[in-house]
Specification:
By secondary structure, the protein is an alpha+beta fold. Helices cover 22% and strands 26% of the residues. The longest helix has 14 residues.
């Protein structure tokens, strides 16, 4: 179990402190407490308990959100990079939601996966069969999906232990002064805007390395991000913290061009694809059954590549 000292949240309700610490909803935090997976000084406590200095909170993994029931398979064209009896690796296009949720009851990747491999219905949560990790709706790139319960458990453990290699490409606003860098900044739920994450004291540790791959005049740059942790919106939050948000990312400032030099060309280049320019380009892990190292790479999707071509032309 993970722990934290109540000094970080003195006076807060236990459920509120857990929700902030874990980056989850209050309802999920309350279910965790009700399940006995959150203790104060080694003893169960109520969700309404007000934390006091000197207390220590220990908690286990938060429970998953309730999954929609009765997900029906739907025909869908999937860009499958690799598949065997244990797993599927695919290249997710931008605009595709990974699993059902509020506002997305049909047409998700899960619906297509169930049509492609019916055995997935018995792997993991009902609404998220086989899902080991996720990409945001507008983020493209590589995903691994487990086809058996054992593969799901073993792959999830590799992600938890930070053993999975995750490399992303992003177009960011402006050009970083340095060619490379490392961001170590904890991430938690934004205190007032619940759809956002933020760099927060008491959040979950998050580490990102970055390197500039290409510059497009002063307006923007193609940056490689390597994740050492897997927090929600990690690259988007850390890029904004760096002062160079992911281009097109309305949630974290990626459409605030302001007085940015070359902003007209950048705005024009992004006009045809108004989404965050973020792509999961490389994914590496050990095969859950054999232990053999696997690594996959996905090229930039057409819309991302077109934006870069337009910026190269404008920068000439």
């Amino acid at each position: 179990m993970e722990t934290f000292k109540a000094e970080e949240a003195a006076g807060e309700r236990l459920d509120a402190a857990l929700a902030r610490r874990c980056g989850i909803s209050r309802a999920r935090a309350q279910r965790l407490i009700e399940a006995g997976a959150a203790l104060v000084d080694g003893r169960p406590a109520k969700a309404s308990h007000r934390l006091k200095p000197g207390e220590e909170v220990a908690y286990g993994p938060p429970p998953p959100e309730p999954a929609p029931q009765g997900v029906e398979p739907e025909p869908m064209i999937l860009d499958i990079v690799f598949e065997d009896d244990s797993l599927i690796v695919l290249d997710k296009p931008p605009g595709l939601v990974v699993h059902p949720g509020a506002g997305h009851r049909q047409g998700t990747l899960v619906h297509g996966l169930l049509h492609h491999a019916a055995e997935l219905s018995a792997v993991g949560a009902a609404g998220r069969p086989g899902i080991v990790h996720r990409l945001d709706k507008d983020t493209s790139g590589l995903l691994v999906v487990a086809k058996t319960p054992d593969a799901l458990t073993r792959l999830a453990e590799q992600f938890k232990q930070g053993e999975v290699k995750k490399l992303y490409l992003a177009l960011v606003l402006g050009v970083p002064e340095k060619a490379t860098g490392r961001i170590e900044a904890a991430i938690g739920r934004h205190p007032t805007e619940r759809q956002k994450m933020a760099v927060r004291e008491g959040g979950r540790a998050a580490v990102t390395e970055w390197a500039v791959r290409e510059r497009f005049g002063p307006s923007s740059a193609l940056v490689e991000f390597r994740l050492h942790t897997g927090r929600t919106h990690q690259i988007r939050v850390h890029a904004a913290r760096l002062g160079h948000p992911v281009a097109g990312d309305a949630l974290y400032g990626g459409r605030r061009y302001g007085s940015l030099p070359g902003r007209a060309a950048l705005r024009q280049a992004l006009a045809a694809s108004p989404r965050q320019m973020l792509h999961a380009t490389r994914l590496g892990f050990r095969h859950p059954l054999t232990g053999a190292p696997l690594e996959f790479e996905a090229p930039l999707p057409e819309d991302f590549a077109a934006v870069l071509s337009a910026l190269r032309e404008a920068a000439r």
